[in-house]
Amino acid sequence: xxxxxxxxxxxxxxxxxxxxxxxxxxxxxxxxxxxxxxxxxxxxxxxxxxxxxxxxxxxxxxxxxxxxxxxxxxxxxxxxxxxxxxxxxxxxxxxxxxxxxxxxxxxxxxxxxxxxxxxxxxxxxxxxxxxxxxxxxxxxxxxxxxxxxxxxxxxxxxxxxxxxxxxxxxxxxxxxxxxxxxxxxxxxxxxxxxxxxxxxxxxxxxxxxxxxxxxxxxxxxxxxxxxxxxxxxxxxxxxxxxxxxxxxxxxxxxxxxxxxxxxxxxxxxxxxxxxxxxxxxxxxxxxxxxxxxxxxxxxxxxxxxxxxxxxxxxxxxxxxxxxxxxxxxxxxxxxxxxxxxxxxxxxxxxxxxxxxxxxxxxxxxxxxxxxxxxxxxxxxxxxxxxxxxxxxxxxxxxxxxxxxxxxxxxxxxxxxxxxxxxxxxxxxxxxxxxxxxxxxxxxxxxxxxxxxxxxxxxxxxxxxxxxxxxxxxxxxxxxxxxxxxxxxxxxxxxxxxxxxxxxxxxxxxxxxxxxxxxxxxxxxxxxxxxxxxxxxxxxxxxxxxxxxxxxxxxxxxxxxxxxxxxxxxxxxxxxxxxxxxxxxxx
Length: 586
Known about the structure:
With about 575 residues, the chain is an alpha+beta fold. It is built from 17 helices and 23 strands. It has helices spanning about 35-40, 60-75, 115-125, 160-175, 190-195, 205-215, 245-260, 265-280, 315-330, 335-340, 370, 405-430, 450-460, 470-480, 510-515, 535-550, 565-570, and strands at about 1-5, 15-25, 30, 50-55, 80-85, 90-95, 100-105, 135-140, 145-150, 235-245, 285-290, 305-310, 350-360, 375, 380, 385-390, 395-405, 435, 440-445, 485-495, 500-510, 520-525, 555. The chain has a 7-stranded mixed sheet. A 6-stranded mixed sheet has the order 18-19-20-21-22-23, sandwiched between helices. Strand 8 (about 135-140) and strand 9 form a beta hairpin.
């Protein structure tokens, strides 16, 4: 899923509509969580919201979309609550009744970007004290509608945005089928706030570690370890980077598994290494952790995030894993009580925060690729550094926000560049691309265009080879294969960097067999000098892991009937010939 900012948001041009629901008078009072109190207590302001945009493949009437959205509001209590300033200045939270409203067209001025028009709408509609502080928008275009769901951060987190999108799509499907879009009730976030308040206070060792980490940071929340310029609010600079693609992400994950740690721990080890190198200090950062402790809250919407602190001083995977484990544990206790000695969260200019979300592990899923879904952050003024990492089926992505000052551009930019280079280097040197055969080591890499002559030579060295001699035709074919990431054309190299093997792996989704995804294996070749050593077996075992990483549950291969030796080889690896493959020229 693309992780972006409203200034970088990719939107088509069209009519911008917003659905104005009607909020009744404040009713029953609700508990306010510690983090909600901090956020809302800062008052109404632009840029306190978060959003999710996605594109629908077919036209939808505004009335149908509004009906579906009202069903979503009816399911989630936090969307039926509003904040009101209390007499003592502290925000109060109340239930309200939400009733149908009307669609309003928001004008896009000549020369104005759609992004800017949308930002103006959301800045006005999704502020802490607006009633309600959420908004459904739609861009009507010739290619179908783009939907934007936005809410003030006090009512949602990134997980919640997926829940809202999933529920809206389910309700919309019901409307299209002529059914009532009734969604099953979900526990309200207010119930979670009450449950959190009933938890026991943090033990002494947790309080002690909080005090130690804050003391090392000057008795404030951890700050970015390099200069950011004048300590005041500045216009933000936002960088959106794709850190690891699907291949490198899989290789990085394989390395983490081999090290016996999570992918997050391996990233923290790299951040620790970079921070020690560039700043001469351990990695210390604010570390948001979710509080959905059990499945009760998986389908709920709210701000199920609290803050912890992460301290990592040793750039080694196991040590980083322990640091992450400690941070999660420190964030598992009511924060209001833990931070009482500091009079609340001791924020200071330069605060450094690192957020991590692995979408592959969430129990809530949407077709992010098919929907062209984008997580959208607001535009604000800032004096600190915030990193968001998203890990999904397409790889590892990050968004970074920092003050737009010369010092921050230099120091945060250099820190990011060094980190990303370190992560990519680790991925490409990982066990995920390494084949160990006896005392020999080979590497599997995605072939580049310069490899084509060597690959053609391997393909030609076969008893049934049907290869030609026009290298230009092969280069054109390579370009077509390389454009589509579903295909992996492998170059297997030995210790001297000679190409000694190749194969093409293609991921093929389908509807048959209950929607099984297959991996097609073609063109498996091993150089004559390396045959009968186990290289081919190692290549196929690697290929099977490649397929599993990409959701394939069936591998299939074709070979000529006259190649008895090849058929025996595949049979030994568990392939059977119960099915018949047919072909004809076109």
